[in-house]
Amino acid sequence: MYKKNRFISLMAAAGLSFTATVNAAEVDLRFAHFWPANSGIAKTLASWGEAVEAESNGRINVEIYPSQTLAKATQTYDSVVRGIADVGAIIQGYTANRFPLSQIVELPGIVHTGEQGSCVLQKLYDEGDLDSEYQDAHVLFMFTHGPGHIHTKGKPVTKPEDLAGLMIRRPTVVVGDLLEGLGGEPVGLPAPDMYSAMQRGTINGVTLPWEAMASFRLNELADQHTQVGLYSLAFVVTMNKDTYAGMPEDLKKVIDDNTGMRWAEKLGKAYDELDLVGVQQAKEMGHTINVVENGAENPAWKPTLQRVSEQYISGLDQQGLPAAKVYERAQTLSSACGA
């Protein structure tokens, strides 16, 4: 009896081992991004991995590397191109002058919500207006956050003149130009470095959507908020071309089925929901929130913002890029996507 039971146990163990081998993932994808692991956007990106794993019946495994643990925020796109990461989510504006047409959606007046802005950006890509900027990677989907505002520590900003002499973190050069035009002094910093810089007094404030004020704990430091809709950032999730090309056709289809507008709008919607969390947190902490009437269209703000936007578009046109065409299309899509 002992020998029989031992034989059965050995066979069961061997069977388990065989099953584990059969069920082992055929493709392992390393997904790099900069959001904190416990943030809402990180969790939404993780849900993309979960969907891919489920739809491939476990043949694709997605391992998430948040908080710059695999690649720095400014280097994630190139890390995907070189194969250090297989998938990566980036802010296009973190690499200046590399995605200038994509960054047109950063300009005031185009993005009103994350979901609507994501629709605009994804449609621009789907229609071929941005193809030239992504020749070296396989694009999965694009998205934007909702309107970005000005958040300062100690000093309220109710009009552009109040920005004079203030060191304000800007996420991209485009946003920096907008701030400089308004009289502020823009400082370039990746998102993960903002908290320590404000804590030390290196900067007086930040430009961020409400979501990021909670995700990066900036509401702990900034107590003055100017809700003006200054800008909105563009994001893209890309995949290494060789990784994608080397996958079996049925697994490529799993990736293809999790590409494009559905995920673009899902990320944008997540931003909108998290914006509500960020602003509610600030209210509960007793902060001052100055809502600029009509936002970027306010007469005190619009002339400067419009001038800087026009300079950006004309500068790209002078480089031979179809910026005016893309900007006009983005404005049309802004209305269509918001309908």
From TrEMBL:
It comes from the Bacteria. Residues 1-24 form the signal peptide. The keyword Signal applies. GO terms for biological process: transmembrane transport. Pfam families: DctP. The lineage of its organism: Bacteria, Pseudomonadati, Pseudomonadota, Gammaproteobacteria, Oceanospirillales. Keywords: Signal. It comes from Marinobacterium lacunae. NCBIfam families: TRAP_S1. This is TRAP-type C4-dicarboxylate transport system, periplasmic component.
